[in-house]
Amino acid sequence: MNNITRLPVAFTHGQGTWLFDEAGKRYLDALAGFAVSTLGHNHPRLVEAISRQAGRVLHTSNVYRIPLQEELATRLAGLSGMDEVFFCNSGLEANEAAIKLARFYGHKKKGVELPSIIVMEHAFHGRSLATLSASANRKAQAGFEPLVPGFIRVPYGNVDAVRQIASRSRDVVAVMLEVLQGEGGVNTVSDEYVRALRGLCDEHGWLLMVDEVQCGTGRTGKWFGWQHAGARPDVMTLAKGLASGVPIGACLTSGRAAGLFQPGNHGTTFGGNPLACTAALTTLDVIAEEGLMDNAVRIGDAIRAGLSSALEGVAGVVEIRGRGLMIGIELDRPCGELVMRALDAGLLINVTSDKVVRMLPPLIFSDSEAEILVEVLASLIREFLSQ
Fold first, then answer.
1. pLDDT in tens, 36-63
2. Which domain does 192 fall in, by range?
């Protein structure tokens, strides 16, 4: 189906942070498959682990024990302080599980007939009917109405708006947000805001649900973005970079959200299979042992500083923002054509929200690669804005 606007390139292989096309031209990957290729390309430990597991067993079924799934769940619970994990195959599925869990909580624990979830402007949680309804992307929603009801949208970063909803609605059961929005434009909020939401949820008996699909798994310099604020959620979703390219998703619960789902309430065919869990466990091992979270902070700071210096005083540059290796450059005009210009220059980037150049490099990005990224991208932006 013609549902993707494809760029005119096909990659045959990759090495580290570089991809190579059919003609042998190499490209610096500053996108990592939209924050998926955490360890870059062809990482020897990941290749060996996946190959070994493929020679043993790929899939059984979740009606049987899967020791690797149990090991991964234990690891994620230990890193996050969460209590339970449901494994699936994508961020959409993880967020769908979170939405179902919130409604189930409202019915079973709060006696709410029509549970509502507070969601944010500029949010993006997926493209199923429920996750699309929770998102704030009208382009993605158009043509798929009627959307799923039960969502109340508020401005991102405005805690007073949430308080106002609390004062007039008895149907709210949860607040759902990304602590660093990706698709919405690499938008950040303060740690104080996240802590304030945690307090409001505790005060009203709501679930705090944090979508870590894009910003999680070490990308911001901590295992999970909410850890910067020290405000552990009741529900957390993961996917994208958790297994460095092998499809996986996870919905974690703690506190009042734990113990809700029982057999038959939710399920999956492929989720948490041995291959995906092997890839995720290896990814977590490499991040920890190679210091990749510290690297994300150091290289991310260097990229933002380099871009700030190179673009200082350039008319049309609105803001350079982000955290760790999640970086956005907002311009004052639509800039989608920069994606193709960068591709021609051997650089892979993305433009989101029409005016924000987005970079999500692999966590293995080096100093020299950061310098190349800054030099090439700053030159492209200056040229684009001068027209």
1. 999 999 999 999 999 999 999 999 999 9
2. 47-289
